[in-house]
Hints:
Layout: H1 9-20, H2 23-29, E1 40-45, E2 81-88, H3 97-103, H4 123-130, E3 142-146, E4 160-162, E5 165-166, H5 173-180, H6 197-220, H7 226-247, H8 274-293, E6 299-304, H9 326-331, E7 339-342, E8 345-348, H10 349-372, E9 375-376, E10 379-380, E11 385-390, E12 406-410, E13 420-428, H11 429-439
Parallel strand pairs: 1-6, 1-11, 2-13, 3-6
Antiparallel strand pairs: 2-12, 4-5, 7-8, 9-10, 11-12
Amino acid sequence: MSKPGRMSRRLLLKSTLGGVLLAPFLRQRRLEAQNLAPKRLILAFTPDSHPPEWWPMAGADPRSFVLQEPLADFEELREHLLFPRRLDHSWTYDNHHEAGMAQLFTGERFSDESSHYSNGPSVDQVLLDNTDIRGGTPIRSVHLMSAGAGSRDKRHVVSYTGPAQPIAAINDPRQAYNQIFDGVDFGNAGPAPQVDEAAEARRRIDNQITEVNLEQLKRIEPYLGSKERIKLEAHAEALFELQQRINSMGQTPQVGGSCEPLDVPMVSRDDRNADAIQQWGTVQADVLVAALVCDRTRVGSYQFGFSGAHHNGMFGLQGAQNNNSWHDNVAHISRTNDSIPFNGSNGTTRQAFIFFDRFFSQFIAYFAKQLAAIPEGDGSMLDNTLIYWGVESGTNHSHNPNDMQYLLIGGKNLGFQTGQYLESGTKSAHQLHTSVLNAFGHPVAGFGIEPNCGPLSGILA
Length: 461
C-alpha cells in the first residue's frame, strides 16, 4: 500500500521525469557560450536549380568531401558548410516552379488554386512568432533581392508571415538602406532598442515554468533511489541553467563588428546584364551585413531572381531558334554536350550551366565570408548566424520535387554540425526545416504538412 503523500514511480515518470524531458534544453546547456550572442537566420535563394556538380564529391567520411566548380568560391568556408543530400519536397504541381517556391521554406501546399501562394508561414517568420530570436531589434525582418523585380508574385517570394501572406523583397539597395537605418544617428548609440512585448511575456512564462519544475523536483527527490536521484539532479541542473539563460535574455547582446554608415551607390537593376548584377548583388549583401552588425534585425532573406528566371542573353548567350534564355537552353537541358555560345566563346551546355551556377553562388559565398571575418563572442558572426540556402527544383533542373538542394552555412554556435556532406538515403525536406526550428529553440516535432516528421539525423549536435 502506498504511503500518504508518496508518488508512484509510474506517476513520477509520467508527471515529472517523463514530462520535463529536457533534450532541447540539454543541447542548449552545451551552447552556453552563445548566451549573450545574437542568433540570426538568413534565408537565401538562387534561381534555376543547380547542376549535379554543385554537390561535393564524397570522400571516405562525411568531412572529407571535395568541392567542385560551382562552389569553388566556398573553399575557405568548407568548415562552415553542411550539405544534407537526398531531400525531397512532399508534393508537386505542373513543372514544380510554383510548387517548389510555395514549399521551399514553408513546407506547405498552395493556399488556393488561383494565387498559388503558400498556405503557411516560412521558418524565419515561425521563429519570430515563437522564439526570442528578434531580441530588442527594431526591425522584425529584412528581405533583399537582386536580379529580380522584388514583387509579390508567387515565383518571387521565399518568405511568408502566414497563409497567402507573402513578403516582397526590396530590390533597390538605396531604398533598403534608407528603410533599415531610418532615424539612426551613427554619432551615438542610436535609438534605444524596442521592447518585444511578446518575447518578454514568453520569457516570464518560461521562467515561471522552470521555477515550478524545480520546486516539484525538490519535493520528489526524497522518494527516489540513488540512480534515479542522479538523473533527477542532472535534470534539475539543466533546468537551473535554462532559468539562467532565460533571465539573461534581457541583457545587452554582444554584437560583433562596428556599426558605421555605409555608402550605398546607385546600381543598375538590369536582370539581363551580368556586370549590373555583379554590383547589385554585392551592394545588397553589404546592406544586409550592415543591418546585422548594427543589430537592426536578426532575420531576413537574400535572394536572386525568381523561380524559372530566364536572364535572356546574359553573358552573350545565344540559344537555339533565337531563344536566348538561360533557363531554356542551359538549366532546362537534358543533354550535356551540345555546343552553345556564351561568355565570348563556345562551350558545352553543361559547362554553361556550371558557369551560370557559380556566378550566382559567388554572392552567397561573399555574404558568408563577410560574416566569417567579423569576430563575435568566442567565434565569428557566421558562427552565430545560419544562412539557409535553397532552390525551387531538384538537381539538374529536373522539374520534380526530388533531390532538392539545400545548404546550411554557419550556425556552429547554434549546434549545427558543419563541415559535412551527409548522404543518408531519401528523406523529407520537412525534417530539415524541423531541425532548423529546433536549433533556434522551437522544439516542434515537425513542420508544414508533415507535423510529426521529426528532425533530420546528423544536422544538430
